[in-house]
Amino acid sequence: MFIPSYHTPVMLQPCLSGLNLQKDGTYLDLTFGGGGHSRGILAELGKNGRLFAFDQDLDAIRNAEALGEDKRLSFIRSNFRYLKNWVEYYGIEPDGILADLGVSSHHLDAGERGFSFRSDAPLDMRMNQKSRLTAARIVTEYTEEQLASLLRLYGEVKEAGRVARAIVAARSAGPLETTGALAEAVGKALPRDREKKELAKVFQALRIEVNGEMTALGEMLQQAAEVLKPGGRLVILSYHSLEDRLVKNMIRSGNIEGRTEQDLYGRTRSPLRAVGKGVATPDDGEISENPRARSAKLRVAEKVNEQE
């Protein structure tokens, strides 16, 4: 019997279909989280199938332990940027790889983790609680120029310069150590009609910086294309344009920069090819039941057989 996960997995059936699951196949879930997608995969696998699940978050580790003794499941306490090392360690060639890149509703609801401005809590935002870098350190130690740059790059914050100045001004009067203190300081620099939307972007930018998300994603995508079995599937759920751009570039051109290279016949050289119509999104029914799915984009790719 499966133990209910703490969040509803986004686009579960499209993800499982995208993986083209084989009963005795070997699969990787790079973002275990609440275990929803992993449970779906295990339900489709036979007794000889294998699933390797990755996560570095302590809550995810506890969720994996709650699954009990399923010999088909191996849980790896690691960031997915080390994917290739673990694949080589276990001596496997995956038939499919899945990654759900979004921050889970659990993290947003768990106020003490500091991912959201909806509750006042320590300004943390670490996925790996052993990491030294927190959001509080960033808003305390980064220069105004560094803050503006990361807000612009990772949050696409329109008033990045004004927000950075507001943070620097506020910290001169005392440390910004809680989500409430940061929200109050930043709110003064935001238009009232877009305050919550822009504030969410500020928190997103800090979260991405704290966890090195874009660098890790780029490394994971390159490694996934290398380790997949020919004909194997790569299934990625992304939630904002920065993530989706890297995924789309990787599938289309074989690198995250989108730099195209052609063979002697003028064909783009890429180890992957898109499956389906490019990008899929959740239907209205799923969005109404699971608001987290609202901004989700699903891309599926297949590893090209080099002999083709």
What topology does this entry show?
Elements: H1 12-19, E1 26-29, H2 36-44, E2 50-54, H3 58-66, E3 73-76, H4 83-90, E4 96-100, H5 105-109, H6 135-141, H7 144-155, H8 160-171, H9 179-187, H10 195-211, H11 213-227, E5 233-238, H12 241-253, E6 272-274, H13 284-289, E7 297-303
Parallel strand pairs: 1-2, 1-4, 2-3, 4-5
Antiparallel strand pairs: 5-7, 6-7
List keywords for this structure.
Rossmann fold, DNA polymerase, domain 1, 2 domains, 7-stranded mixed β-sheet, 13 helices
Fold-level CATH name of the largest domain: Rossmann fold
Number of discrete domains: 2
Order of helices and strands: HEHEHEHEHHHHHHHEHEHE
Q: What spatial order of strands do you see in the largest sheet?
A: 3-2-1-4-5-7-6
Report the end-to-end length measured between terminal Cα atoms: 43 Å
The global form is globular
Structural class: alpha/beta
General description of the model:
42% of the residues lie in helices and 11% in strands. It is of the alpha/beta class. It folds into two domains: 12-106 and 213-303, 3-Layer(aba) Sandwich (Rossmann fold); 116-211, Orthogonal Bundle (DNA polymerase, domain 1), CATH 1.10.150.170. It has a seven-stranded mixed β-sheet with strand order 3-2-1-4-5-7-6, sandwiched between helices. The longest helix is centred in the middle third of the chain and has 17 residues, at 195-211. The radius of gyration is 20 Å and the shape is globular. It starts with 11 loop residues before the first helix and ends in a 5-residue tail after the last strand.
